Amino acid sequence: MTQFRFGIVGTGMIAGVVADALGEAERATLSRVASRDRARAAEFVAGRPGAEPVEGWQALIADDAVDAIYVATPTVAKEEIALAAVAAGKHVLVDKPYIDAASAKRMADAAAAAGLVFMDATHFVHHPRALAIREATPERLGRTQTMHAAFHFPMPDPGNIRIDPSQEPTGVLGDMGWYPIRAAVAYLRPEGPPTTVAAMGTRDPGTGAMVHVHGFLGFADGRSLSFDAGFTAATSLMDLQLIGDTGAIGMDDFVLDWANSFLFRNGEVATGYTYRTGVIDRTGTEFVPTPTARRQEILMCETFAARATGDPAAGPMARPEDSVATQVLLDAVWEAVK
């Protein structure tokens, strides 16, 4: 099988996660890594056979040894790089979030017009569990009513780029808040913009960055999303409840499964979701396993390569319109909280 060749722009933590995933992928591989500092790119590719360092993203997108660009830069730089990559004939996998929905749409539209793939780099929608939940919803939940979700991780480093508003304008909303909103697009599948938006947030006193957001989105069909995202809880929370007319589906690891993800590797914790119906205590809750031998970020790279090469088995869970729809909802919350 010919491997699909990725170039990565950026050398941060999440770029390393995707680089490691490409090292384990069957149909995709890491070819080049670009940084403004070539020495930093060289350090990044050390120990990653076959990958070569490049100075600057402009040189990367001009490289014939690259089929697709993964843009893992701060939010303020993403659109310029992605549009230039598309103009050079490269598919684009772009890390979330985006400056706004108009920016996301420009990238998606440019790729579509050129016959190329644009996809956001959200890992969890590529886990088999995500599709299993969507397929189980009609039978298990009937009509979905609402989703509640919380995603928190501590942020002890005051110099982290995530709390630099000049690089990440929406702070924790664009970083952690993206995931519950993306889950709502995947599982609630709202149609149209929200009709009700409410939000409250907390800013870091030193940087002014948003570090905690609680949001509510209501839709014309009566369904809703409530979520909480922050760097402020001093623990990891990844809870989700999807409630329908005939029951509820839940997870406590909806972003990174405990059993097999880049951060958690506890083989004693089964991966799946819970299902509740009727008046029961926790002993009556059904656990539905959705195991995977391959981490979701590896599956993301495989899915992207499949779409770029026209493989119909690529799956339905990460379309360009889902990326834009997520940013539309995120923008609505940001307008309410900023």
Query: Which sheet architecture does the biggest sheet show?
Result: 8 strands, mixed
Q: Ranges with pLDDT <50 over ≥5 residues?
A: none
* Ends apart, CA distance between termini: 49 Å
Q: Give the overall silhouette.
A: globular
Strand content: 15-25%
Number of helices: 10
Q: What is the tally of beta strands?
A: 14
| Chain-averaged pLDDT | 95
Order of helices and strands: EHEHEHEHEHEHEHHEEEEEEEHH
**Arrangement of strands in the largest sheet:** 8-9-10-7-11-12-13-14
Helicity level, as a percent range? 25-40%
SS-derived structural category? alpha/beta
Radius of gyration from CA coordinates: 20 Å
Structure explained in plain terms:
With 338 residues, the chain is of the alpha/beta class. It contains ten helices and 14 strands. The chain has helices spanning 13-24, 38-45, 57-61, 75-87, 101-113, 128-140, 172-175, 178-187, 296-308, 320-337; strands spanning 4-9, 28-35, 52-55, 68-71, 91-94, 118-120, 144-152, 196-203, 210-218, 224-230, 237-244, 247-251, 272-276, 286-289. The chain has an eight-stranded mixed sheet, covered by helices on one side. The chain has a six-stranded parallel sheet with strand order 3-2-1-4-5-6, with helices on both faces. Helix 1 packs across helix 9 (296-308), helix 4 runs parallel beside helix 5 and helix 5 (101-113) runs antiparallel to helix 10 (320-337). The longest helix is centred in the last third of the chain and has 18 residues, at 320-337. It starts with a strand and ends with a helix. 49% of the residues are buried. The model has no long low-confidence stretch (mean pLDDT 95).
